[in-house]
Design goal:
Elements: E1 3-5, E2 12-14, H1 27-42, E3 47-49, H2 57-64, E4 74-79, H3 86-100, E5 107-110, H4 118-130, E6 137-140, H5 144-152, E7 159-165, H6 177-184, E8 187-191, H7 205-217, H8 221-229, E9 235-237, H9 244-252, H10 260-269
The structure holds NADP nicotinamide-adenine-dinucleotide phosphate.
The site of NADP nicotinamide-adenine-dinucleotide phosphate has 23 residues, from α9.
């Protein structure tokens, strides 16, 4: 599964993982969701992303991973900014552990910056590492200035990951954030890889480009998108799929190796901004 170093965590993690935001509500659909998640792990997508914010996702994941070897999984959760005081972060982590039915997280993130001083949250995250509740710590939706400030508040441990919006339509992070993270060995985990829309129609300019790259690699547009998003070391992507067929399609993207001509054509069809832009979020 094109496993790679997850920042400075020491862990080696599948470049394509699995998201868990907005699982379906109905009982039958949830059964399929659990199957799809577990199937994803079997296919090598061992990195599972969740958050206390995602309704019952942590409980659904707990059922999906029941009986699997804990050390085979890479579980990431997030504390909400509204809980991210020192004590609130410690307590939110305990609750996530309980819901997930595990005794540690592989990485724990501040979901986005909120009202609590970063010093408090970073200090709590460091305590959680020291106490063995989390293996590593990180942030999400942090642009350059916030990331540097968070780094400056840490005394012992390093930020190993910044989880940010990244897809072919939103490429602003390529200007400064990705190069900075690569320099500091911080994993960039891209969320919402499909950009909350269907792939462009084949009779559009973007769709035609994707289609020809798809034909070259015997792949689907979504697979080409995923492959593009993990084209460099330290880049990860976490598509969410609640249906096994989608899980399989996403996992199979790992076999694709885009060449420089493919990447150039994607760059032309889905251009990155030519000036600095604020970090986008969903
Ligand atoms: P996404 O993964 O880009 O898209 C999910 C949608 O794509 C679902 O409707 C899913 O359908 C569909 N899909 C997935 N694979 C497919 C396939 N092969 N073919 C057709 N449709 C497919 O969007 P996302 O859920 O926003 O982002 C992914 C994850 O990133 C989230 O689940 C969450 O874990 C994380 N995230 C983090 C933040 C943050 O602030 N840190 C924000 C947003 C998201 P089905 O579910 O029906 O299979």
């Amino acid at each position: 599964m094109n496993n790679r170093q997850f920042g400075q965590s020491g862990a080696v993690v599948s470049a394509i993982g699995q998201g868990s935001w907005q699982f379906p509500g109905s009982k039958n659909a949830l059964e399929e969701t659990k199957k799809a998640l577990r199937y994803g792990v079997e296919l090598g997508m061992t990195h599972i992303d969740t958050a206390e914010m995602y309704d019952d996702a942590e409980l659904v994941i707990a059922e999906a991973i029941k009986g699997l070897a804990r050390e085979e999984l890479f579980l990431v959760s997030k504390v909400l900014p509204s809980n991210a005081s020192y004590e609130g972060t410690l307590s939110a982590c305990e609750k996530s552990l309980k819901r997930l039915g595990v005794d540690y997280l592989d990485c724990y993130l501040l979901h986005w910056r909120g009202k609590y001083p970063l010093e408090q949250t970073m200090s709590a995250l460091e305590k959680l590492v020291d106490d063995g509740k989390i293996k590593s710590l990180g942030v999400s939706n942090f642009d350059m200035a916030d990331l540097k400030e968070a780094e400056s508040k840490l005394k012992k441990h390093k930020i190993v990951c910044n989880q940010v919006l990244y897809n072919v339509y939103e490429r602003g992070i390529e200007r400064n954030l990705i190069p900075y993270c690569q320099k500091k060995e911080i994993a960039v985990v891209g969320y919402t890889p499909f950009g909350l829309r269907k792939p462009p129609a084949t009779n559009s300019k973007q769709g035609a480009v994707l289609d020809s790259i798809c034909q070259k690699h015997a792949a689907t547009p979504r697979q080409i998108m995923l492959s593009f998003l993990i084209r460099e070391e330290l880049l990860f992507t976490i598509p969410k799929a609640a249906q096994s067929a989608h899980t399989k399609e996403n996992a199979d993207a790992i076999r694709i190796k885009l060449d420089s001509a493919d990447i150039e054509r994607i760059n032309e069809a889905f251009p990155a901004p030519d000036r600095d832009v604020p970090l986008a979020m969903v």
